[in-house]
Amino acid sequence: MTLTATAKAAPPPPPGPPAARPSAVRRAWRAFSPYAYIAPFFTLFAAFGLFPLLYTAFVSLYRVELQTPGDMEWRGLGNYTALFTDEFFWMSLRNTFTIGVLSTVPQLAMALGLAHLLNYKLRGRTFIRTAILLPYATSVAAATLVFAQLFGRDFGLINYALGLVGFSPVDWQTGTVASQIAVSSIVIWRWTGYNALIYLAGMQSIPSELYEAAEVDGASRWRQFLHVTLPGLRPTIVFTVVVSTIGATQLFGEPLLFEGSISGGIAHQYQTLGLYMYEQGWGFFHLGRAAAIAWVMFVLILLLVGVNALIARRRSRKEAGR
Fold first, then answer.
1. Which residue in 75, 85, 210, 252 has the fewest CB atoms around it within 10 Å?
2. How far apart are the first and last CA of the chain?
3. Residues 42, 48, 54, CA angle at the centre, nearest 5°?
4. Model confidence over 237-249: pLDDT tens digits?
5. What Å distances lie between residue 30 and 33, 40, 221, CA to CA?
6. Where is the composition biased (Pro residues) (predicted)?
């Protein structure tokens, strides 16, 4: 005999007031509050970034002189055609490229080596990390003036050291290659420690299990660096290359203060694009020409960054297909 028990259904809850719906104002605030939080950034960017960029493009189409900025004469692409027929523009473009290569390649190589050393357990690592960042915190004016004294022709410390080993003095401010090496050394001194700390942060994010597995397989420190550290640092290396390329294209303070001339030396031998733009705008008072140079620099940076990104993407696809 089977007994079946049936439970009584629970009584329905007593009727009460309906749940209050959020008001229209509250719903609108929930929808637009994220935009309100980021609005200050976009407001400042539009005022101090986007508007100057667009206005510079507008000014580059006119003949504008610094003495009479209100008198604007339409030139169309005349500023650009005059720019591309100016030999000093191509010289400054070539100088920008050579100084960029001379400063970026040794800088990133030295930064990678320093980061690799600091990644191991060394005594005083905290002090060394702080010390290598001090050049970055130093004023560009102070650093350039000190290096200008070091590279002095008659009483500079560099020429004195060269004389001790039997070399004749070098005129660092007149020779083309010598002056570009001198300017590049300032950039290397200021930015090597900064990039080294970026590389060090990237190295510390690589899993230690990869190094342990490589060590078990008998890989030496050099093999571990080539096959574990460098592949793990590839995004960081691409980032530093892009940032260094942008910085080299906009190089201005070091060549300006090295000799104190806006022409970049007697023969324009180390005049960069930034210095050439300053000379046209505030030396010759051609604001329209200077605006055209600024936009050429902007397009050049976009092209260089795009080429770097394309090379990095093809490299990653090739390695992924192996």
1. 85
2. 74
3. 95
4. 989 998 998 999 9
5. 6, 18, 55
6. 10-20
Distances (CA, A) of 109 to 93, 247, 248: 24, 17, 16
For the domain spanning 80-320, the CATH number is 1.10.3720.10
Answer for the pair 197, 131: CB distance below 8 angstroms, yes or no.
no
Q: Rounded to an integer, what distance in angstroms lies between the CA atom of residue 170 and that of residue 154?
A: 9
DSSP string covering 64-102: -BSS-TT--EE-TTHHHHHHHT-HHHHHHHHHHHHHHHH
For residue 269 the two structure tokens come to 């031998």
- Angstrom distance (rounded) from CA 208 to CA 97: 39
Tokens for 77?
């692409």
Task: In whole angstroms, give the CA distance from residue 98 to residue 15.
Answer: 83
Tokens of 27: 């719903």
Own/partner pairs, 311-317, CB within 8 angstroms, 24+ separation: 312/234, 312/238, 315/234, 316/234
- Token pair, residue 169, equals 């003095």
pLDDT value, residue 66: 86
Largest separation between any pair of C-alpha atoms in the chain: 120
Provide the mean pLDDT of the chain: 86
Q: What is the dihedral of CA 81, 87, 92, 93, to 10 degrees?
A: 60
| β pairing state of 73-74 and 62-63 | antiparallel
Please give the Cα distance from 252 to 225 (Å, whole number): 35
